[in-house]
Design goal:
The chain is built from 16 helices and 15 strands. With 450 residues, the protein is of the alpha/beta class. It folds into two domains: 210 residues, Rossmann fold (3-Layer(aba) Sandwich); 196 residues, Nucleotidyltransferase, domain 5. The strands form two sheets. The chain has an eight-stranded mixed β-sheet with strand order 3-4-5-2-6-7-1-8, with helices on both faces. The chain is 32% helix and 18% strand. It binds adenosine-5'-diphosphate and magnesium ion. The site of magnesium ion has 4 residues, from helix 2.
Length: 450
């Protein structure tokens, strides 16, 4: 292994980042400020200075990790550390290790469970969920490989926006701490694109491109303005209010399902309305890659025989006929056993408004309860973001978190008076006849229901 000689010229903010020994240091703000450079350079310095130190550097996706870190580190450490592509780690002669990883899916973070790293870096931390951050804090501990004592630390780089906007903003910008969080542990260093003279001198077009972004994005990316993004679409959602352990569904409750079908993800919710304007989501089903007939079979299989489902409200595009077969999604679901399908009212903004109304707590109680078993709905609701262009709409990105909330929107819209009045007497009669042969249960039609 050769001698590593690099001349570092950090700017003032990068220097502050290098020198920070807080438990949690976030280097945030504008894109192009030199954050990623600072993160990987800091980690090389730590690896060289502290023999045996274990370092984990994470990005959300492998592609980003490779371009942003593996390639530049390979160049920088060619004669200094041995890189293993299978393990994605740089091993230094002094026993130090920089492991590079990514957490594409929510659960990918679990692979680090039980491991120990004195240093963990989360690149673009706002792309990670709070759950992922919390899992990683558990791995941030003494690994036992170092001879000297070392207090574990985490480093973050971040831009405003993204699924993790709220937790990063809370901890580092708003500094609103909860029990068990020590305010002194958190340090925020603000980066601006103008701090990085390498970029402003060598690539003035980059700054010009940032200046040309739509306003909210520009304020976030160029000036690092954390308030430029509204954050959570449903700030009303509070698991302490809305999530219920094993909700009791009364025998006479009005049961229905809501379905957001897509080949990438089928999301179905089972709901109970109580006749007083309250709805409980008591079961969910989510699965990728199901063709329509499989989706129908899975949903029917998850509905016990005694459960009288009055209707299943589903995305209206299922009623479009396919040119090749002349059949619609509705036809296929229906012939596969999923009866009682009705078209959802897909007006997005009124639909989200309805969800908001249900979530909005009055005297500490809300009209919507979600069983704790509906993990996907509970995960996705707080992650929904505002659309940057259409002010009252939810963003369709990241796409994988939109399915369960869309099904919830269909479900609650089906309880709105306008939607109900569309149900014809003929359809109401058909409701009695398919899964609910006994009409003497006191149920007298959807329109009169709540
Ligand atoms: N102190 C520095 N010395 C040399 N190059 C730097 C320095 N700071 C930033 N750069 C370079 O500037 C560019 C943008 O920096 P980067 O770290 O990717 O910004 P950010 O992560 O904040 O978007 C990269 O090419 C990076 O290597
Ligand atoms: Mg970066």
């Amino acid at each position: 292994m050769g001698q590593l000689t690099i001349t570092l010229r950090p700017n003032k903010k990068q220097e502050a980042f290098f020198n920070s020994q807080h438990r949690y240091t976030a280097y945030g703000g504008a894109r192009g400020g030199g954050k990623s450079w600072a993160m990987r350079t800091k980690f090389v310095l730590l690896a060289l200075k502290h023999p045996g130190i274990q370092i984990l550097l994470l990005r959300r996706t492998l592609g980003e990790l490779r371009d942003n870190h593996i390639v530049p580190l390979l160049k920088m450490l060619a004669d200094t550390a041995v890189y293993s592509e299978t393990k994605k780690e740089f091993l230094f002669p002094n026993g130090s290790r920089i492991k590079l990883g990514y957490c594409d899916g929510e659960q990918d973070v679990l692979q680090y469970q039980g491991q120990a790293y004195e240093i963990i870096g989360m690149e673009e931390a706002t792309h990670f969920t709070y759950f992922q951050f919390q899992c990683l804090t558990e791995c941030n501990r003494y690994s036992g490989n170092m001879k000297e004592p070392f207090r574990p630390r985490m480093y973050f780089t971040c831009n405003p926006g993204g699924v993790g906007h709220d937790w990063v903003k809370r901890l580092f910008i708003d500094k609103l701490y909860r029990d068990g969080e020590n305010p002194e542990d958190y340090r925020f260093i603000q980066s601006l694109v103008f701090d990085n003279k390498y970029l402003t001198e060598n690539d003035p077009d980059y700054v010009n491109a940032l200046s040309a972004l739509p306003d909210a994005r520009k304020r976030a990316m160029l000036y690092g303005d954390w308030d430029a993004f509204e954050g959570a679409f449903f700030p009303e959602f509070d698991p302490r209010i809305h999530v219920v352990k094993d909700p009791v569904i009364p025998k006479n409750a009005f049961l229905f399902r809501a379905l957001d079908y897509g080949l990438d993800m089928t999301s179905c919710l089972w709901c109970a309305a109580d006749g007083k304007g309250n709805v409980t989501v008591y079961r969910e089903f989510n699965a990728p890659n199901l063709i329509l007939s499989q989706a129908a079979a899975e949903i029917c299989a998850r509905t016990p025989a005694g459960e009288k489902i009055r209707y299943t409200v589903a995305s209206p595009d299922l009623w479009n006929r396919r040119q090749e077969s002349g059949k619609s999604g509705f036809d296929i679901l229906n012939s596969s056993g999923l009866k009682g399908l009705i078209k959802a009212n897909n007006a997005r903004i009124p639909g989200w408004r309805a969800v908001r109304e249900y979530l909005n707590p009055k005297d500490g109680k809300s009209r919507l309860a979600i069983s704790h078993s509906c993990a996907e709905l509970i995960r996705c609701l707080p992650l929904l973001r505002f659309d940057e262009k259409v002010r009252e709409d939810a963003s369709s990105q990241p796409h994988d978190i939109t399915h369960a909330p869309e099904a919830l929107r269909y479900a609650l819209m089906s309880r709105e008076p306008t939607a109900k009045s569309k149900i014809t007497p003929k359809f109401r009669r058909s409701l009695y006849s398919f899964e609910s042969p006994q009409t003497e249960d006191g149920y007298n039609g959807i329109i009169q229901y709540d």
